[in-house]
Amino acid sequence: MSTHALPTRGTSLALHGVGKVYRAHGRDVIALENVTLELGATEFVSIVGHSGCGKSTLLRLAAGLDRDHSGKISFDGHPVTGPSLERGIIFQEHRLFPWLTVAQNVALAVHHAGLAPAGKQALVQSRIDLVGLTGFERAFPHQLSGGMSQRVAIARALTGSPRLLLLDEPFGALDAFNRLYIQQELQKIWQQQRLPMLLVTHDVEEAIFLSDRVVVMSPRPGRIQRIVDVRLPHPRDRTSAEFVAVKRVLLDELGYHAARAPGRAAA
Amino acid sequence: MESQYPAVLPGSVLPPASTGAAFGHHAVRVASVLAWPALFLVLLVAAWAFMAHRLDTPLVPGAGEVGLELVRVIGDGEFLRQMGITIQRVLLGFALAFAAALAAGIAMGRSRAFDRFMEPAILIGLTVPGLVWALLCVIWFGISLLTSTVAVALSIAPALVLNVAQGVKAVNADLVEMSAVFQLSFWARLRFLWLPTLAPFLLSAIRLGLSLAWKVIVLVEVFGMSSGVGYQLNSEFSSQNVAGVLAWTIGFAGVMALIEYGLIGALERHASRWRRVATL
C-alpha cells in the first residue's frame, strides 16, 4: 500500500458530488445523485432512510467494492480506488469463512500484512478479547450464535488496524436484546479506538444512540435530505426527553408523524 | 432479566478432546455400519450356492469352486500384477481427464459464453457409450498406452467438467468480496476460498470419474490389450472357464470397493474435518 499519510485532524472519508447509475432491465436507475458528505477524523455518522435510498450503495462505494460511479471519493486525502485494510467493513451477514475457526477468521484480515506469527497471534487475541469472545478462539462459525458471529466480524474488521469502519446494517439480523447490547459494545469500542465510523441502518434509535450526526436520505434518486446533529453526552439514555426529541425530528423527516405513531421507531 | 452476555446456543459445544470412550463408541458405530452390507454379501453367496446346486450345470459353478479359483489367481500373484497394470491405465486416463476438466470447468463456471459453448460437447460426451470410445481408440491407436489413456479420459471427462463447473458457481460472492477487502494473494485465495469450496465437488467428481473409468478400462482391455484384468476376463471367457470369469470379477470389485471406501472416504473425511475438529 502506498497510502500511509498521517491521519489528519480534519477529514477522514470525503464524498464530493457522488452519483451512481445502475443499468437494470434496459433502463437506467439512478441509485445516488450528488451526494456530498465529509467524515471527521473521529466522527460517528449514521445514514438512515427507506429501502432503496441508496445508503448501502454509498457504503459499498466508500469501501471501494464498486468503482463505477461519478464524483470524487477520497480517504485521508487519497482517492479511493479499491478495497483496503485501512477501511474495515462489516455487513449485515457476518461473512465469516465457515471452514476457519474464530481465530483463523480474525487472522485472515492481516494475512496480507506480513506480520511475524507471534505478533499476529497477540493482535488476533487482543481483538477477540475486545469483543468479549475470549475462550471461543477455536470454535467454528456454525457453533456460534448470530450475535457472537457478528462480534467476530467486528473483531476481524478491527484487526486490520483500520482508520475507518464502515458498517452496513450490522445488527439488522439480531434479536432486540442482542442488538441493544452490541450497540453499547460498539459505542465503547468507538470511544476507545478513536476511529471514524460510518453506519448504515434502518433503526433510527440505533443511529441516535451512536452518532454525532445522522444523515437522512430520500429514495429515487438517492440523495441527502437532511443532516441532523446529535449533541448528547455518552452513554445516551434512549428514554430522555432530548433523545426522544431528536427521534421525533428524524421520524418526521422519514415521513412518520409523531402524532400518529408516538415514540415508535421506524425499524 | 436476562444476563447481559448473549448465551452460547444450546448444543453448540466446543470440540471436546478425544478420549478412549469416544474411540470405543466409534468402533461400535463402524460395526453397526458394516453389519448390514455384510449380511447382504452372506445372503448373496448363499443364494448363489443354492442356485448352482439346483441347476447342476458347468455353466453355473458352485460358490466353493469360484472361491478356490479366486484363491488360486490371488495366490500365484497373477491377480495383483494384472490389477496393478489396470489401475495404472485408469490413473493415467483419470489424471488427463481431471486436469482438462479442472481447466474447462473453471472456465465454464466463470464465463457464461464458454458455458453455453461447451454445453453440446458435454451432452454428446455424456451420451456416447464408453464402449464406443473403447472401440474407436483401439482402431485408431492400436495396442498402446495411448488407447487406454484416451479412452478412459474421453469417457469420464464430461462428468468431471460438470462437477467442477458447478463447484466454481457455488463460490460464495460475499466471501469473494471479503477476500478483496483483505487483499488476499492468489495463493491465499486458492487456499482459504477456492479449495475449501471446491473440495466436495472435486470429491464427487473423483468418485464418479473412477466408477466410470473402471467400466471403460475393462472394455479397452478386452478389445485391444494383452494384459490387465479385462484381458484376463476375456481369456477365461475364451477357455469357457466360468469360475475364472467370476473370480476375476469378484477380485476386481473387491479392490474397487477398497478404493472407494478407503481412499476416497479418507479424502472426504480430510476435506470436511473443519466440521468436527478445530485446527489451529
**CATH architecture of the largest domain in chain B, please?**
Orthogonal Bundle
The name of the CATH superfamily of the largest domain in chain B reads: MetI-like
- CATH fold field value of the largest domain in chain A: Rossmann fold
CATH class category name of the largest domain in chain B = Mainly Alpha
Unreliable sequence segments of chain A? 1-8, 261-267
For the sheet with most strands of chain A, the description reads: 6 strands, mixed
Count of spatially separate domains of chain A: 2
CATH architecture of the largest domain in chain A: 3-Layer(aba) Sandwich
User: What structural category do the secondary elements of chain A indicate?
Assistant: alpha/beta
**Structural Rg of chain B:** 24 Å
Question: What string, H for helix and E for strand, traces the elements of chain A in order?
Answer: EEEHEEEHHHEHEHEEH
CATH class of the largest domain in chain A: Alpha Beta
What percent of residues of chain A are in strands? 25-35%
Distance between the termini of chain B: 37 Å
Structure in a nutshell:
The complex is a heterodimer of chains A (267) and B (280). Chain A has 267 residues and is α/β, with parallel strands linked by helices.
Secondary structure elements and pairings:
The complex is a heterodimer of chains A (267) and B (280).
Chain A: E1 11-24, E2 27-40, E3 44-49, H1 55-63, E4 70-75, E5 78-79, E6 87-90, H2 102-108, H3 117-130, H4 146-159, E7 164-168, H5 176-193, E8 197-201, H6 204-210, E9 213-218, E10 223-229, H7 241-253
Helix pairs in contact in A: 2-3, 2-4, 3-4, 6-7
Chain B: H1 20-55, H2 63-75, H3 78-110, H4 112-127, H5 130-141, H6 145-169, H7 173-181, H8 186-224, H9 229-238, H10 242-271
Helix pairs in contact in B: 2-10, 3-4, 3-6, 3-8, 4-6, 5-6, 5-8, 6-8, 8-9, 8-10, 9-10
Report on this model:
The complex is a heterodimer of chains A (267) and B (280). Chain A has helices at residues 55-63, 102-108, 117-130, 146-159, 176-193, 204-210, 241-253, and strands spanning 11-24, 27-40, 44-49, 70-75, 78-79, 87-90, 164-168, 197-201, 213-218, 223-229. Chain A has 267 residues and is of the alpha/beta class. Chain A has 2 domains: 1-86 and 162-172 and 189-253, Rossmann fold (3-Layer(aba) Sandwich), CATH 3.40.50.300; 89-161, no CATH class. Chain A is globular. The model of chain B is unreliable at 1-19 (pLDDT under 50).
